[in-house]
Every structure is written in C-alpha cells, then in structure tokens.
Design brief:
The chain is of the alpha+beta class. The protein is built from four helices and nine strands, in the order H-H-E-E-E-E-H-H-E-E-E-E-E. The chain has helices at 2-17, 23-68, 145-151, 155-158, and strands at residues 93-94, 100-101, 122-124, 132-139, 162-172, 177-180, 184-185, 194-196, 199-200. The strands form four sheets. It has a three-stranded antiparallel beta sheet with strand order 4-5-6, with no helix packed on it. Strands 1-9 form a two-stranded antiparallel sheet. A two-stranded antiparallel sheet has the order 2-7. The longest helix has 46 residues, at 23-68. The radius of gyration is 42 Å and the shape is rod-shaped.
Length: 201
C-alpha cells in the first residue's frame, strides 16, 4: 500500500508541480508520466483481477455454505429434528414429588402427593450409586459403612447381612442403608442423600 501511495504522489507531482520547467524537461516528464500511467493502469488491472478472484472465491465459499447449511424456511417442518409420531418410541421421564420409601406392601413407581408410591429409581447424590431394594428383607443391626462400601452392588455378598422380614423393604447404596416397613416421606430421613433418578414411562 505504501508503494501505491508513493506512485500516486509521484504522479501528482509530475503533473502539477513541474509546469514551469523547460519544454525538454516537460517532454521527459510526459514520457515518465506515460510510463507511470502505464504502471498505474497495470496495477489497477491487477487489483481488479485480484478483486475478481476474491469475489469468485467468496462466491464459491457461499455456495458451499448454502449446500452444507440449507436455509430453513419457518413455514416448513424440520423432519430430522421433529419427534416421531410413533407413541411407542417416545419416552417421557417423570420424577417423584415428594419421594417416598415404603415396605414391600407399598406399590412402587412414580410417587406424587396423590398417588403414594415408593420410588424404585432412587439414586444417591453422595456416592452416585443406584439404590438397591430388597423386598421382604431388612438390614442386620451390625451393618456398617465399610460393609456397603466393599460389597455394593453384589447381592451375593450383601445377603450376608440381609434378614428375612415380611412386609419390609431393605434399601442400600454404597454409603447409606435403610429398612422401611411403612410408607414414609424421604424428606423425614435427612441422613439419606437419595433422590428420584427419573422414571421412564
């Protein structure tokens, strides 16, 4: 760009500043101006060619972008992202609110304030394990943290501390355990860091 500016200044000087010189020098200046004009015209043509090349490249890129990302008309439905109309393929996740625990006589499923059901999709927020449930069982009083830490979720190892109890339901994750005999709200058991892990319906 500096060269273009110098050429332009030289051309302005040769045309307007040297008008008082002798005719011989004027003839030389005219020849020089013609050369400069020729050079300037070549540069202009070169710039036009570069500009045209850049425009061509831009046009090709635009075409490629249009092919890759087709413009979405707001009146046309998007079939690739729209859900299918087959009701069997749709899954809806529901969470219990409030979350209930209960003995084996209590139905399990999505618990609400109207349908009191024990949640069977519990997940622990402390150890990030799914809570295991054992119907008609209770945990032995000798259970401790290390027992569950080392043996969860292997049922064959856990049954060493499971006792048969009709109507009971033994719950356990890797860090906590509880035996429920009746329906109770999980919020009443603050030591249990369990939440509903969503039911797929």
């Amino acid at each position: 760009m500096a060269d273009d500016l110098d050429d332009l200044l030289d051309e302005v000087e040769s045309k307007f500043c040297c008008s008082t010189s002798t005719s011989k020098q004027t003839a030389c200046d005219l020849k020089q101006t013609d050369r400069n004009c020729g050079t300037l015209q070549e540069k202009k043509q070169s710039r036009k060619h570069e500009s045209k090349t850049t425009d061509d490249i831009d046009a090709v890129l635009q075409e490629l972008l249009e092919d890759d990302f087709k413009h979405v008309n707001s009146h046309e439905p998007i079939t690739a992202n729209s859900p299918t109309s087959d009701p069997c393929s749709q899954t809806v996740s529901k969470k219990c609110c409030p979350v209930f625990l209960g003995g084996s006589s209590v139905l399990h499923g999505v618990g609400t304030s109207v349908s009191h059901r024990a949640c069977n999709q519990l997940r622990c927020t402390s150890c990030d394990f799914r809570v295991a449930m054992f119907d008609d069982h209770e945990w032995d009083s000798s259970c401790d943290y290390l027992f569950f830490r080392n043996n969860m979720p292997d049922y064959h190892k856990l049954r060493a501390k499971l006792k048969r109890r009709k109507g009971g339901r033994a719950y356990a994750c890797q860090c906590s355990w509880y035996t429920a005999r009746t329906l109770l709200n999980l919020n009443t058991q603050q030591q249990l860091k369990w939440i509903c892990g969503k039911h797929k319906t």
